[in-house]
Amino acid sequence: MKKYSAVLFDLFDTLVMFEPSLLPKVMLNGETWNSTAQHVFTRMRSSLGEMGFKDFYEPFVESHRELLELRKKDLREYPNRKRFEIFMEKMGLKEDDGMLEKFVFSHMEGLCGAMVYPEHHTEILLYLKEKGYRLSVVSNFDHAPTARELLRKFGIADFFEHIVISEEVGWRKPHRKIFEFALARFDESPSDVIFIGDDPEADIMGSSNCGIDSVWVKRREQFAQAKPKFIIKDLEDLKKII
Fold it and tell me: How far, in Å, CA of 163 to CA of 14, rounded?
């Protein structure tokens, strides 16, 4: 069994689970679904005048879609602030840094309520630390303070020597620059590192293209061209391979 010196973890749906069903409910046009939209609207209502939720919701969704399109072009990361700059422009709201930050905070507050941490993941991190592995997080996320706060909230921030968030690097996985940034922080060669993630493209293909062995946490059945070193269903299975 190959010995690695460092283990890099994806954050969302690898270490911390995102449960969309825990997002606040939205009710519109006789339909109900889960979104941060109602939460943000309620928090920001005093700043929106007489606007109704229906008028708020469409630009809220469209601003998210436009941000996703920007990211797809070249895998550059845009902060969540950019999404709400687009939103405020669509709404005809005057530029206001204070209001912009409140939109971002409200959205992130809603997202955090849908994050769940499996307690047994702490046991796995302890196991890896006891084995002498250096640990790091490498995550795609557009608001680094929220990602770091979640790690603190769940009591696992201190396990990691480095926390690399795409918003701070400016590039998203699978772009090689974010992996190279993480390797440089560790001062490790790709062959001495293994990456753990749930996304076959961003995590597995991205790390493999940089010469990093990978472990795919395959939480559901899906076709993927990625070729990980290992496939597991739960982080508990790491004890069998590293």
Answer: 15
Query: Rounded to whole angstroms, how far apart are CA atoms 79 and 166?
Result: 9
By the 8 A CB rule, do 198 and 217 touch? yes
Alpha helices in 75-202, H assignment, sequence order: 80-91, 97-112, 120-130, 144-153, 166-169, 176-186
CB 48 within 8 Å of CB 56: yes
Task: Return d(Cα 11, Cα 45) in angstroms, integer.
Answer: 32
The answer to whether 117 and 16 are in contact (CB under 8 A) is: yes
Residues 6+ apart with CB under 8 A from 155: 122
- Tens of pLDDT, residue by residue over 68-113, are 999 999 999 999 999 999 999 999 998 899 999 999 999 999 999 9
Phi/psi at 177 (nearest 5 deg)? -65, -35
